[in-house]
Amino acid sequence: MTGVPILKLDRITKTFPGVVANENVSFEVGQGEIHALLGENGAGKSTLVKMIYGVQKPDSGEMSFMGEPFAPSKPSEARAKGIGMVFQHFLLFEALTVYENIVLGLSAAEAKTGDLRQRIIDVSTTYGLKVDPDRLVGTLSVGERQRIEIVRCLLSEPKLLIMDEPTSVLTPQEVSVLFQTLRRLASEGCSILYISHKLEEIRALCSKATVLRGGKLVGSCDPRQETAKSLAEMMIGATLNKPERELPEPGEIRLKVQELFMESEEQFGVDLENITMAVRAGEILGIAGVAGNGQTELMEALIGERACRFGRQIQLDGADIGMAGPRERRAMGMCFAPEERLGHAAVPGMALWENTLLSAGKTNDLARGGLISLFNANRFATKVVDDLKVKTASVKSAARSLSGGNLQKFIMGREIMQSPKVLIASQPTWGVDAGAAAAIHGILIDLAKSGAAVVIISQDLDELFTISTRISVIAGGYLFPSQPTEELTVEKLGLAMGGRAKEIEAAKHAANAEPAGV
Ligand SMILES: Nc1ncnc2c1ncn2[C@@H]1O[C@H](COP(=O)(O)OP(=O)(O)OP(=O)(O)O)[C@@H](O)[C@H]1O
Q: Which family does it belong to (predicted)?
């Protein structure tokens, strides 16, 4: 580290009712340093960066920025000092252009300086972040949308850029472009505070890491000198065991989808084009793809939120279920864990035990004849919390009070513990730390071993390679025929995920070649 640190935290403490999110955390970020903030779910990373960005205030402790005392009470104050933040979920309007979105995100003073359109073009060219100011955001891929957020931050020439899990939505090729941009920014003196659960990426990118556990700082290191395993073990304070994917020979087809065409109901949605697949008992089919390529629409069709035209387009153990709704499908032995945890997979304001009723009410005898069994619901919720090691004050806590990763663990546990015949999960370990991800992967493998057919829709290729028996790519609403995991490489998948029109067209024409296993 050279000279005065750009950011210094001194004994920062922040508590929420029943939880100490950060306790006496002190560390420094040097100028031009790419600094990782690591920790398991609920360790306090987001709370800490929210205080730096002025979204929350510490209860005690001090911060200084460029040698001056610093206590932002709102994000605009942090931005005025030179701090930019790219959030995990982008705050963009789909029906507006890139230019309009950028203007909306800037303060009046920032928006007025110079010719903004030209500055957008200059910044995007300088940093290799191609954006077209006149494109509608709704027509852009997730990777392109992230570029807008980064360009928006760079327009105010930040001295510190905070990034919260920036790569979870990118293809491997996009990740390498992002890393080039970040390295260039760092070489120009901009510091980067980088939160991610992807430890190999941390090793490739960051020169310093601060590790939090249970809200406390437990160590710092140079991640380049560590392995992903040693970093994970520093985070969890225990030895990490990777799950083994040894599955029996596949059995009968449990889930079959054939010739499924479905027009999207959303303005910028993706139409499903001739989806055909079959998943057997004991198999885990991974569906790779960049977000926005039909995954949401496929999930809606698979879980019955949108009915198919014909019942036979989706079959469960040979029975036509294409026209059945989610409840009927659940009653027949399917379970689902959709991607959006708050609002879709769980009701934010409801307690955890109440959230079990949403999906496990019937299957696990939590409610019968309109009467809720408080005892059974509490017991089931407590078992999910204990088995998945969900960090929460109690099962009476509201879903929204859990950290993102902990809520994800709870939802996955709630579904898996119903012992479904078919489980369909989207992004099962999104934002989940290495220890918990290994636990969820282990349970998914056990579920398949017990004879379930499992479908995992994920953008995380490491995850798909760890657990899937076969992998397909979805691009432009078309599902490429699946291939055994052993025959695939990250590069091959990454190219297909890029959704290159020519290849998709070629594959569509060759589509009478049925996916393996059908
Ligand atoms: N607004 C809030 N109300 C109550 N508790 C909260 C609130 N925000 C965070 N917490 C709690 O503070 C702790 C730290 O959460 P935080 O979101 O900072 O963790 P994290 O390290 O970012 O986790 P993840 O990797 O899962 O995102 C958690 O126990 C969480 O439940």
A: Belongs to the ABC transporter superfamily.
Give how many domains the chain has, as a whole number: 2
Q: Are residues 217 and 310 in the same domain?
A: no
191 plus 64 within the same structural domain: yes
Q: How far does the centroid of ligand 1 lie from the alpha carbon of residue 195, in Å? A: 14
Q: Could you give the CA distance from residue 152 to residue 146 in angstroms, rounded to a whole number? A: 10
What confidence category does residue 2 fall into, taking pLDDT thresholds of 50, 70 and 90?
low
Mind giving me the DSSP string for 404-460? HHHHHHHHHHHHHTT--SEEEEESTTTT--HHHHHHHHHHHHHHHHTT-EEEEEES-
Which residue from 477, 430, 425, 422 is spatially nearest to 451, judged by alpha carbons? 422
Cβ pair 52, 5 in contact under 8 A: no
Which residue's alpha carbon is at the smallest distance from atom 31 of ligand 1?
402
Lowest mean pLDDT of 76-85, 313-322, 387-396, 485-494, name the range.
485-494
Domain containing residue 348: 253-509
- At 158, the pLDDT band (50, 70, 90 cuts) reads very high
Compute the distance between CA of residue 497 and CA of residue 149 in angstroms, rounded to an integer: 22
As a whole number, mean pLDDT of residues 227-251 equals 81
Which pair of structure tokens corresponds to residue 464? 């798909």
Over residues 269-301, the pLDDT tens digits come to 889 999 999 999 999 999 998 777 899 899 999
Residue 405 CA: nearest ligand 1 atom is 26
| Per-residue pLDDT at 475 | 87
Domain shared by 257 and 230, yes or no = no
Q: What is the distance between the alpha carbons of residues 184 and 32, in angstroms, rounded to a whole number?
A: 10
Boundary (domain end) residue, out of 190, 206, 236:
236
Ligand 1 centroid–CA 234 distance in Å is: 19
pLDDT of 168 > 60? The answer is yes
Whether ligand 1 lies within 6 angstroms of the CB of 402 is answered as yes
- Residue of the nearest CA to atom 2 in ligand 1? 401
Query: pLDDT tier at 268 (50, 70, 90 boundaries)?
Result: confident
487 shares a domain with 434: yes
338 shares its domain with 227: no
Q: Is 288 in the pocket of ligand 1 (CB under 6 A)?
A: no
* Angstrom distance (rounded) from CA 344 to CA 337: 9
In a domain, 245, yes or no: no
CATH code (residue 97) = 3.40.50.300
Q: What is the pLDDT of residue 405?
A: 82
Residue 379 placed within a domain: yes
Nearest CA to ligand 1 atom 16: 44
Phi, psi of 38 (to 5 degrees): -115, 155
